[in-house]
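Input structure tokens:
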């Protein structure tokens, strides 16, 4: 599973990275985290407000840092937000 953090490296982006990593570890997933910091690459995802979270190329969260429990649900495929 590829977890992509879409953001320029701001504090919220770093927090999202920590949250996503913690959620994936708690679920025991085989994952890699990719940080996408280039604004042109971020825009290719259709994300105009950071931070953004994508899983395997699919955007799940935009413009906020979700809770660890919310990220776990997203990683399990239980819910999603465009």
């Amino acid at each position: 599973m590829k977890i992509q953090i879409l953001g320029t490296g701001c504090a919220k982006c770093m927090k999202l990275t920590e949250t996503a990593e913690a959620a994936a570890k708690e679920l025991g997933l085989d994952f890699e985290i990719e940080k996408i910091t280039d604004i042109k690459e971020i825009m290719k995802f259709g994300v105009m407000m950071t931070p953004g979270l994508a899983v395997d190329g699919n955007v799940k969260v935009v413009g906020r840092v979700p809770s660890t429990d919310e990220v776990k649900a997203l990683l399990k495929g239980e819910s999603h937000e465009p």
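The first helix runs from residue 11 to 27. The longest strand covers residues 2-6.
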